[in-house]
Amino acid sequence: MSPQTKQQRHVAAGEWFFGRGDGYVRTLLGSCVAITLWHEALRLGGMSHCLLPEPPAHRRQTDALYVQGAIASFRAALRQYGARPEDCVAKLFGGGNMFPRQGARAGGDVGRRNVEAARFLLRKAGFVIKREHVGGYCHRAVVLDLNTGDTWLRACKPGERPL
């Protein structure tokens, strides 16, 4: 079946999903990062859409707006199923530099910082990143098939202007 004929769930900025289903989970990224997980033996999948690496001191640590919170949420969900991070296929997407001309005036390259944080925190939590498509200067659309764990990626072409 194609992605158009199955149930689809959109994961917006700051959201995450983890579970089973007959369908797809999708998101659209710029400087944000998406983490996808697939546990083949249990047929469980998930996706997060994170805006920033870590929360300020006054925010909850499990807030999925942040890489740190999304990973904590994934770990908690896996524990409910008796699963471990190292049993999952983790993939990382996004982290584009959407405003390269603004540089340090806009707080630096948030996309790069998101990717660095995701790599570090995923490994620290016991996940192994099997694939990634990160960085650059463009947007990405990511789709995760909850039946197979397959992911599809659509990214702008080299030289194409970001959205």
TrEMBL record:
Catalytic activity from the UniProt record: L-glutaminyl-[protein] + H2O = L-glutamyl-[protein] + NH4(+)
GO biological process, one term: chemotaxis
Domain of life: Bacteria
Its EC number(s): 3.5.1.44
Keyword Hydrolase: yes
Pfam families from the UniProt entry: CheD
Key words, A-Z: Chemotaxis, Hydrolase
Top-level EC class as recorded in UniProt: hydrolase
MF GO annotations: protein-glutamine glutaminase activity
Function: Probably deamidates glutamine residues to glutamate on methyl-accepting chemotaxis receptors (MCPs), playing an important role in chemotaxis.
Family per similarity comment: Belongs to the CheD family.
Name of the protein this chain belongs to: Probable chemoreceptor glutamine deamidase CheD
Species this protein is from: Methylogaea oryzae
Encoding gene (name): cheD
